[in-house]
């Protein structure tokens, strides 16, 4: 019996099973069994170093993640929660190294069973450069992503299932896991239910109406400027893009002063001639109207610039063919212009809706979400994102703010995913790749 035949045994005595079992028991032993001595020693040293340096931290972190502390004033629930989440991330890297150790040992053992030569050190380095080097380069970015983006998201998700608020905050008190109680409170407790339904409804209306108006206005102006009969197009385009050139922060503050019912120019210099005085800032309805008008003004220049470029790319022979067939202006607009524009810009338009859904700046800078509404803990013009800001920084209801943030995230992700899947541009990209 040759060596290759002897190694092609079945059952537990097969090299692949022996190498796998050894790697499961002690990382690196499988590689040593496969005569990959350098790789085996490296994996063994890395595994031992990982356990020695992180064991105590992970042990305390996992304990704190489940208990959130047991002794008030001595244990800080927030610190334990963060340490627990970091421990999960560190443990994830450890599990990845452990899994790689097992899979690598089994792959090399299968190579031995097939009678193929085991790669030498130089061949292993060459294979790593060809296949693994790109992953090695993105590893630092992945680590930063986990700790800068994923960790805060996990922390926010965790807070939504605790009782962390202004009346129960560490280190004086310990936090507890409350399950879905914060979400049920949004439905069962009157003040939370009334506020949530009111703010959520206004957020949807605000998103749909303000975004749709800025898209319609931008498209209409782009059609006018693109008409061959219009002269001085460059000047007109420059003037229409000016609102986009001015920082939105400055524009919103100026509009807040213009809409002031006491000294604002809109009431004092314009509407006063018709003996009309509108409470723009003190009445929720008129404040919402003002916000929608301001957002339409701020948002249409981008849409105008976007549509202007797309309209110039529509093939002229399509319109000429429509003229030959006797097509009307409305038919050319409906069957040629609009489909072409939507195909090219649908993903960006969807992002406009998603952006306005979380448009905190205009709501807070205009009137801080006011005026106040009786029976609610949010202002009359607060949208979900500005309400979350108030719950976090003004009333310290961190648990409810986190719960509402999760709901917001699910809504935006669901809407964006559904709409992206329906757009022709997204489907075309999917088929292409």
From TrEMBL:
Keyword Thylakoid attached: no
Described function: Part of the ABC transporter complex MalEFGK involved in maltose/maltodextrin import. Probably responsible for the translocation of the substrate across the membrane.
The keyword Transport belongs to this UniProt entry's keyword annotation: yes
Source taxonomy: Bacteria, Bacillati, Bacillota, Bacilli, Bacillales
Stored SUPFAM superfamilies: MalF N-terminal region-like, MetI-like
Topology class, membrane: Multi-pass membrane protein
Main location: membrane
Record's protein name: Maltose/maltodextrin transport system permease protein
Species per Swiss-Prot/TrEMBL record: Oceanobacillus luteolus
Compartment(s) where it occurs, according to its Swiss-Prot or TrEMBL record: Cell membrane
